[in-house]
Amino acid sequence: MVSRDLFRFWGALLFAAPLLLCPPMAKAQTQPAPEIERSYAVALIRDTMALVNHGNWTGNYTVLRDAAADAFADANDPTRLAAMFVQLRAERLDLLQTMVVDPVILNIEAADGTQALRLTGYFPLQPRHVSFDLTFARDLSRYRLTGLSVGAFEPL
After folding, report:
1. Percent of all residues in the chain with a pLDDT value above 70, rounded to a whole number
2. Which of 19, 94, 109, 149 has an alpha carbon 20 to 30 Å from 86's alpha carbon atom?
3. Element (H, E) at 50
4. Strand residues in the chain grouped as ranges (E)
């Protein structure tokens, strides 16, 4: 049953809003959990989901773009982001629930020490789960978004 859940998750992730918009992390290596604390990873995920949710409800992705890394912002003007999230807006996917439900983090990858970070997982919501695949780059003392994929899939 678990393998079937993972298959459905990865299938949903691949066909969700494919928005990995900056170059992938080079030579990513999975780091042990102490490198990136789970509570910090959850905060990054929720912060990103809130930005996407605000963009979806208003149709204005300027704040998402401005909060992201420079390379992400340069590659994506707000109009391009709005076009990429058109399906999520059409589905009226409410991501507010992601602020109060703990995500299931399937993978935390850190590269170059902890200069690049990738978080993959889903929120077990009803009626549909919400998947995420997020990449970040360290900028001084914080992580800034470099790529994302967000989508919904039916739970088993």
Report:
1. 78
2. 109
3. helix 38-58
4. 17-19, 29-30, 104-111, 116-123, 129-139, 142-153
